[in-house]
Amino acid sequence: MITQQTLIVGANSEIAKALACEILKQQNCGLLLLSRHFDEQWQHERTPEQLQRIKLISVEDYSESSIEHSIDKINSNSQLPITRVFICNGLLHNKTVKPEKRLEDFDAGAFHQVMSANVLTPMLWLQKLTPILTGEVKCKMVLLSARVGSISDNRLGGWYSYRASKAALNMMVKTASIELARRAKNIKLILFHPGTTDSPLSKPFQANVPQNKLFRPEFVATQLLSILDKQEVDGVASYLDWQGESINW
After folding, report:
1. 169-188 confidence digits (pLDDT tens)
2. Residue 186 CB-density burial (10 A; 0-12 exposed, 13-18 middle, 19+ buried)
3. pTM for this entry
């Protein structure tokens, strides 16, 4: 019997699909999957019983108006309480954006793209979702961050835009947690560093990653769900790595 729901935003990423697979093993949980595109092959691999527990919600883009429209769709599909939210949006590189190795590589256009994807979009989701999640039911919300967003841990330099975006996301979420501790005590905010995950996002940068530090999405999903189960809804933002260890801000 389904008694609760999990919402995954950016559900077409490798980590998101792995999370969905793990969550579907929990018979009491339904899934709300939200994305601009959906992996048809992934859907074909699901059982009829699993497909009955999945609601697919398409979003045209990640503009504020599209996000608000998606919130309406989520509301119409959320008769049961949403107890977990995973916001998996993010950008490290694309055809026009590459992590900077030196100051000369810094580009204003690329910076705006990275900041929009890694800070603005997750914060809009946090803003728009909070009113429908506030209540008596405990809800844990995870946003994907990265260790390179830690200012105190920055020893290598480079990757200006990506580092700045994750540091900004960390600050925004930490600030939001202080407010929610007063007005939405049932919501716990968690910033999660998944490690280097074998996915298209990390593909160009895997050559120098030790074999035992390149993680399969399935491993990351299992770790994250295990870590999430242990988190108390305490009104404090947590910044955690894939081992469940706290990262210095």
Report:
1. 999 999 999 999 999 999 99
2. middle
3. 0.94
